[in-house]
Amino acid sequence: MITETVFEGRILVTDRMSLGEGPGYDRDTDMIWWFDINASKLHLLSASTRERRIIQLPEMASALAVVDEHRQVISTETGLYFRDTSTGALSLHVAIEADNAVTRSNDARVHASGAFWVSTMGKNAEKGAGAIYHVLEGVVTKLFDKITIPNAICFSPDGATGYYVDTDVNQLMSVPIAPETGLPTGPASVFIDTAHMTGGMDGAVCDGDGNIWNARYGAGVLDQFDPAGKLKARYQLPARQPTCPAFIGRDGGWMMVTSAAQDTRVEEEPNAGNTFALVTGAKPRFDPAYRAGR
Question: 3-state secondary structure string, the chain?
């Protein structure tokens, strides 16, 4: 039987973001981040001081990974850029689809090996325009293509399984991967088929017990699937279009969820585009640093 939980969390930020995405957290600095993709903005929030900054970026961006104490790497519509944490200066690391004006970056996550899986999609969700790439030490390898809306990139705790979904299809795929490199060792196969359910599978994170937490866009819920792929619980959210979850806080006790206000009216959905935080009781897992090489 599925456990359904009403929202008992808090609204972390009330900004009405068109397309909130890419939440993450760095335990060393206690910094939370997320993006408004359509507005080309990076949001930074100190969990300890509550100091907040909004950074206007030169192009659409959707994900961030820590490199070291001085650098981050940001996934944008033309590739991966290093961001200097002191100055905010951006410098190109590797180009990805830089010559394709149709696409932008979308979902991403760092594997335990330090490899960054990053995805692209059409700016207007053009059919089959997207792909998922593996990036490690500046080497870019295309893993999957002909994807319309790539999402739910996450990895099992042992690093031996990768997950992803095309939201347009709503079948979560699993693929065996090498724990030491994050590269596939076999073909992808359907793991969870949710095509019959309301809404679409969006961003996801895997907890320390191997459960998959998935934001279901259009259904206003955060779904918890067990390691076997069975739906265990649904956490209601006060917005119909949640986009992606992430563990936050040094003890990992909270999970944040971004959402989107696109295609909504404020008088009908006042919380659309807000960023939420809730307690789930899950064993937290945080993304490691991206291995950039020299």
Answer: CCEEECCCCEEEECCCCCCEEEEEEECCCCEEEEEECCCCEEEEEECCCCCEEEEECCCCEEEEEECCCCEEEEEECCEEEEEECCCCCEEEEEECCCCCCCEEEEEEEECCCCCEEEEEEECCCCCCCEEEEEEECCEEEEEEEEECCEEEEEECCCCCEEEEEECCCCEEEEEEECCCCCCECCCCEEEEECCCCCCEEEEEEECCCCCEEEEEECCCEEEEECCCCCEEEEEECCCCCEEEEEEECCCCCEEEEEECCCCCCCCCCCCCCCEEEECCCCCCCCCCCCCCCC
